[in-house]
Every structure is written in structure tokens, then in C-alpha cells.
């Protein structure tokens, strides 16, 4: 049985299998194919945690032996990956929930202001009634996650959860200050953010490693 350490709205998945897969992700000798597989598998384990208390509704079903009351999810689910690395988490999520809707959020970092700039945002309708899961493997400065959450809320989202793989204190603080209503789920919290905005020890550039663009 796994445990998630929850501090306020911060949930760190403490799980032996996740820890082992995190070491595969972090190892610089891990090839793209293994990196992809490990990221997708960690995404599935994080999804299990994030969805633990999603509201359900009763559904009447028949097993081969009897009628019974089962459960269905009460809200539609929207996955919102922040491009491009968030797509690496999306892949695993869709294996478990292939019927989920998807909203893409494209942000790049302005080299002068270092602020995220929105270059693409296409979100499904009905966000206000949906369970929205915002995806980005790395919570580094927290600025992209903050901007993405602001975009989601501007289009009506009210139930938002944020999933990342590695977070650092700076990013957690930034996101929690801007959006205290959004719980953060991660597999690890690392101690540092370097001057280039990379988490240390981290795992490097998640997008480059997932897409093989090193
Ligand atoms: N984005 C990454 O891909 N890696 C980091 O360490 C920080 C941001």
C-alpha cells in the first residue's frame, strides 16, 4: 500500500515502485525509450493518487450473477498538458483514461523578461463542470504552471489539480501563492533550482529527454 505525504495541498507520492522508476528517469545514461516508458508509468501511478477522491455517482449494473450498484466518475475529466513536456505525462494518463478530454496549453519563456508567454491555448468546453488535471513534469520556477492555471480559470475551470514529477520549493511556493486552491501532486521534491532554471539534481530537460531532442 503506498502513501502520499500531504503537506497542505502538496502531495508527495512515497512509493517504492515510483522511487525505482524515478531513478531510471534521473539517470543520465537512460535511453529515450526507457525514459518514455518510465515517465508514462510514473504518470499512471500519479493519476491513481490524484483521482483517489474524485466524486463518483451510483450506476446500476448487472454482473453475470446479480444486479448491483457500481460507481462512475461524477465529472468529466480534462487533461491539460503544458507543451511540450506535459505530453510525456499525458501518454500514460490516456492509457488509463482514453476517453478523457484534452486541452493543450503552449507556453514559452521570454528570454528578456523570463516570463511565460502564451502561444497556444485550446481547451475543451465545459471546464467549469470538469475535473481538470494540469500536467507538467517539472515544477521549476512555477511560472508556467501559474500562468497555465490562470488560463484554465479564465475559461471557467474551478476543480484543478496539478501533477508534476519533480518539484522544487521555489516552484511550489510560486504556484501555491498564486493559486492556493490547486493541490500539487509530485513524485519527488528536489532541493535546488540553478541559475538556468533547472531543478538539481532533477533529471535534466524533461522535454528533450522524452522527445529525444538532446
Ligand atoms: N524544465 C525541465 O525540463 N527541467 C528542469 O529541471 C526544469 C524545467
Helix coverage percent: 25-40%
* Overall pLDDT confidence: 95
Order of helices and strands: EEHHEEEHEEEEEHEEHEEEEH
Q: Which cofactors or ions or other ligands sit in this model?
A: uracil
Total strand segments: 16
What's the main sheet like?
Answer: 9 strands, mixed
User: What's the architecture in CATH terms?
Assistant: 3-Layer(aba) Sandwich
Domain module tally: 1
Helical segment count: 6
Which geometry do the CA atoms define? globular
CATH class bucket: Alpha Beta
In a nutshell, what does this entry contain?
By secondary structure, this protein is an alpha/beta fold. Helix content is 32%, strand content 33%. The model has no long low-confidence stretch (mean pLDDT 95).
Provide a descriptive summary of the structure in words:
The longest helix has 19 residues, at 32-50. This protein has helices spanning 16-26, 32-50, 86-96, 143-154, 169-178, 206-211, and strands at residues 3-7, 10-14, 56-62, 67-73, 77-83, 101-102, 104-109, 116-122, 131-135, 138-139, 159-163, 166-168, 184-186, 188-190, 192-193, 199-200. Helix content is 32%, strand content 33%. The mean pLDDT is 95. It has a single domain (3-55, 71-211), classed as Rossmann fold (3-Layer(aba) Sandwich), CATH 3.40.50.2020. The strands form 4 sheets. Strands 1, 2, 5, 6, 7, 8, 9, 11 and 13 form a 9-stranded mixed sheet that branches. Strands 10-12-14 form a 3-stranded parallel sheet. The structure holds uracil (URA). The site of uracil (URA) has 10 residues, from α6.
